[in-house]
Recover the amino acids of this structure.
């Protein structure tokens, strides 16, 4: 006898998506406006190209970001990424994280965490 599958929990699913490394950094960078791949990579900082590509594809599949290809006249096409309305709604999540961090974390705690 197989156990029943667990019920869908939207909070559990959202945490699963948002906890993936670089996801919130990508969203935060795109809150400032659309960016090309290289510009986004610089804004995120530290994410290798293969991982960034994978995260962007996943976020696009979830309809959180949109990808547009620009013709650059004779050069390689340029990919430009922007947030969809659903992606822009994450502004509230990022703001809440920022408010929480300003209230509960200080620079010395960050420095201690990095040195541990």
């Amino acid at each position: 006898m197989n156990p029943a599958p667990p019920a869908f929990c939207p909070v559990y699913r959202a945490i699963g998506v948002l906890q993936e490394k670089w996801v919130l950094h990508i969203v935060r960078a795109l809150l400032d406006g659309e960016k090309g791949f290289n510009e986004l990579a610089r804004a995120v900082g530290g994410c290798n190209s293969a991982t960034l590509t994978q995260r962007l594809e996943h976020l696009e599949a979830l309809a959180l970001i949109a990808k547009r290809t620009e013709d650059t006249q004779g050069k390689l096409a340029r990919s430009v990424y922007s947030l969809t309305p659903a992606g822009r709604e994450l502004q509230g999540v990022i703001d809440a994280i920022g408010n929480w961090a300003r209230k509960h974390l200080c620079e010395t705690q960050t420095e201690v965490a990095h040195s541990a």
